Amino acid sequence: EAQVTQNPRYLITVTGKKLTVTCSQNMNHEYMSWYRQDPGLGLRQIYYSMNVEVTDKGDVPEGYKVSRKEKRNFPLILESPSPNQTSLYFCASSFSGQGRIYGYTFGSGTRLTVV
Amino acid sequence: GEDVEQSLFLSVREGDSSVINCTYTDSSSTYLYWYKQEPGAGLQLLTYIFSNMDMKQDQRLTVLLNKKDKHLSLRIADTQTGDSAIYFCAETTDDTDKLIFGTGTRLQVFP
Q1: pLDDT tens-digit map of B62-83
Q2: Which of B17, B18, B73, B83 has the most beta carbons within 10 angstroms of its beta carbon?
């Protein structure tokens, strides 16, 4: 089944403790992206990647890192999480260029709470 | 800059039609989308429309696009309780794969 898989689904952590949210897709998509969803703000793009070893900042990249060493994986790294990073996170992917036509395939989300 | 706006809430009676509205500012939008998010789930693409179209119909869903006013709407006919969800409009422009989302409209359907 074609899908985007995120792990974990739920995570509660403490301020300052490094964490990684994994994202994997099995569709051979070039384009991958991370969004965070906050009430009243919709979804805002954190980082995106056009292909392996090619990453770029989105609208709200502060406090996050990403890497794209393989085509299928696009982990989101919070080196020193803070409470304002408490949010619902989504990973998404598409074929490059076709994302403009068909939209993205989204993962099921990761609900992160930083205390 | 890019900005996509929606009203936050809509409440309708089961069987009535729902109309969810969206406005956007970027005149270079090429595709516009409607996504549905059910509680605890990811985003599901419902439908999309190319910017040179005025209307698209898909079963109970009708999308209307007024490019002059930069206004997009989603009409759901015969709304059911299973339609209760958050609906996001989104756009892409002709030079990027980036999806720009609206704030989302929470649709509540009551019996």
Answers
A1: 999 998 999 999 999 999 999 9
A2: B18
B53 versus A112: the higher-pLDDT residue is A112
CB B94 within 8 Å of CB B30: yes
Distance from CA of A97 to the nearest CA of B (A): 6
pLDDT digits (tens, 9 = 90+) for A16-25: 999 999 999 9
* Tokens found for residue B83: 């339609």
b/e per residue A45-66 (b: at least 16 CB within 10 A): bbbbbeeeeebeebebbeebeb
Identity of residue B2? E
Q: What is the dihedral of CA B49, B52, B55, B61, to 10 degrees?
A: 0
pLDDT value for B18? 97
List pLDDT tens digits, range B19-52.
999 998 877 777 899 999 998 888 999 998 988 8
Q: For residue B24, what are its two tokens?
A: 């956007």
- Which residues of chain B does A100 touch, with a Cβ-Cβ cutoff of 8 Å? 30-31, 92, 94, 96-97
Give the model's confidence band at B99: pLDDT under 50 very low, under 70 low, under 90 confident, else very high.
confident
Single out the residue of A40, B18, A36, A37 nearest to residue A48, CA to CA: A36
Residue appearing with tokens 């898909």: B58
List, in order, residues 6 or more apart from A34 with CB less than 8 Å away. Answer: A23, A45, A46, A47, A48, A58, A64, A66, A74, A76, A89, A90, A91, A92
CB pairs under 8 A between A and B: 65
